[in-house]
């Protein structure tokens, strides 16, 4: 279904994540040219394409602020193993073997499956820039899927330096070409997926950050992920050079010190938690939600790396809520009076806080007039969540991808009746399987 000039979803339970609107038990959402124009009961139907939402909970689409979609074709392959083996076999072994076709297939699978599970905006952390063709392939897959995307331009998995700007693998200057390609696209924007002080020498990480600022784009960087690297104190390194600012998102922060969390909070920087992967990755450290909240930092959430975890946002919300309740309830927290956590907080982390972390809080993240119509519609009469007494609790505690009937991005219907519309799901899986067989022929399970 193409974007209608005027669309009306009627009689739905609306979870707006807008503090001025709240939860509307029975109401309508009016959309014109992909933008929400009104929320509430009794909207006029004349001239609109009317969709009956009486069986739905409608919520803003989830915003994933850190997903390595190029790894989606080798999903769930390293959940049982030591992270050091993953680094060696995937980043050091498979990464250099990826062709542009493999990047396309994996990114397409990651984006389409994200949409199917309610993620309407995805920050694709693409550290697979082996050649310019690799970048083009990833961008093409994102654009064709229909998802709202932020292409996080990373670094090559190759180490020969053949097309990079220096033998130290400085950030490829090809990002300028990508900026020109992306400029003016309605659903695709650009960010820098940087190596940072824990992964590169100062000349390299300073160059990358200054490059992002020349382009006027946000920077996302992994920090404090593993205890040995915590000594690098990445946030402090940025602060000491006067580079710490509100255009930065720090991923993980598991071993980031309290002092550094205070620094990034004061700077207005954001944090992305890849909760399921952080809990599944031996040695990564504790999820620092209690320490973040103590400094007023409300994180966003991410599906991170599907080789080691589930990528959907339902899993991230549920995992984080349970972890936090256990962590605080078991008196493991170093915070004297930990911040109380609600299910509403969890939904906000997955929506409006994600929008803030990618710089789109004025356009997405809540069902608010004037924002883009990025919406997910869940059947509230499904056995696993019915009868619904609290729609926020139903989403966070009980819902999953199978409950999502319909997904809109900018008013365009990309999933309907539980089936993807723009993307051919079978073709998407076929391409991903072929990529997996090229990369890991020993994994072929066919008789």
Automatic annotation (TrEMBL):
The keyword Ribosomal protein belongs to this UniProt entry's keyword annotation: no
Record-linked Gene3D superfamilies: Metal-dependent hydrolases (3.20.20.140), Urease, subunit C, domain 1 (2.30.40.10)
InterPro entries: Amidohydro-rel (IPR006680), Metal-dep_hydrolase_composite (IPR011059), Metal_Hydrolase (IPR032466), MTA/SAH_deaminase (IPR050287)
Keyword terms of this UniProt record: Hydrolase
Domain called Amidohydrolase-related: residue spans: 57-413
One family name in Pfam for this protein: Amidohydro_1
Keyword Hydrolase: yes
GO terms, molecular function: hydrolase activity, acting on carbon-nitrogen (but not peptide) bonds
Name the record gives this protein: Cytosine/adenosine deaminase-related metal-dependent hydrolase
